[in-house]
Write a structure and sequence with these properties.
By secondary structure, this protein is of the alpha+beta class. It contains seven helices and six strands; from the N terminus they run αββαααβαβαββα. The strands form two sheets. It has a four-stranded mixed β-sheet, sandwiched between helices. Strands 1-2 form a two-stranded antiparallel ribbon. The protein is globular and about 40 Å long.
Length: about 210
């Protein structure tokens, strides 16, 4: 292989990885392990076998948080303020949640064919009766490549794309799906800010406790 060809191959590989795909030497996409519908269900329901705490182990939500989560249903198309986005992030850290690797092309918020199976598992989960009244966070996250404004805008567009897919394909109630972009500010892998697992969509069941108490 020539030196020029090697440089081109390396550059192409970097672009593809940045878009959320890792390509093998044969040119075929190698996807990270996808979560099954059952795994997503158990994570969002707060089952004790997941990495998250079970509902009974979680600190009780304050009335302020419960009121805030309920208010999110009535925001319409208005974007979350910075304070609201941080409030949601704080709540979801103590609620059942799951990180999904949703694949997008580089610098794009368009849902790819590779992303459809994982989103289908998510959509079928959220369409289950157990989540009918849930307020669900769809939070977009990026790695550290690029500027803060670039990553913030990209994460917001990708979260909106996931919401649109779920509403259109599974007829979920749009008001129950809250989108937020977090850019690169909350990496899953803090030791490698450019790691693929930082490019993800976080799904959180914001009012799981309220459901459990009814």
């Amino acid at each position: 292989m020539s030196h020029t060809h090697s440089k081109m191959t390396g550059k192409l590989a970097r672009v593809l990885v940045a878009g959320g795909l890792i390509w093998s030497v044969l040119g075929m996409p190698v996807l990270a392990e996808q979560l099954s519908q059952q795994q997503i269900f158990e994570a969002l329901a707060g089952k004790p076998k997941t990495r998250s705490l079970s509902l009974s182990d979680r600190p009780a939500q304050s009335q302020e948080d419960l009121n805030f989560v309920e208010s999110l249903r009535h925001r319409g198309n208005r974007s979350l303020s910075l304070a609201d986005r941080d409030h949601v992030a704080a709540i979801v850290k103590e609620r059942p949640a799951v990180d999904l690797e949703i694949y997008f092309d580089y610098n794009s918020a368009k849902i790819t064919d590779q992303a459809v199976p994982q989103l289908t598992s998510l959509g079928r989960t959220l369409a289950a009766p157990e989540f009918k009244d849930s307020v669900i966070l769809v939070g977009g996250h990026t790695d550290a490549k690029g500027s803060d404004p670039y990553n913030q805008a990209l994460s917001e567009r990708r979260a909106e794309s996931v919401k649109r897919f779920l509403v259109e394909k599974f007829h979920l109630t749009a008001a129950n799906l809250v989108t937020a972009g977090y850019g690169r500010q909350d990496p899953k892998n803090a030791t490698d800010l450019f790691a693929a697992e930082n490019r993800r969509v976080q799904i959180g069941n914001l009012n799981a406790q309220a459901q459990a108490q009814r």
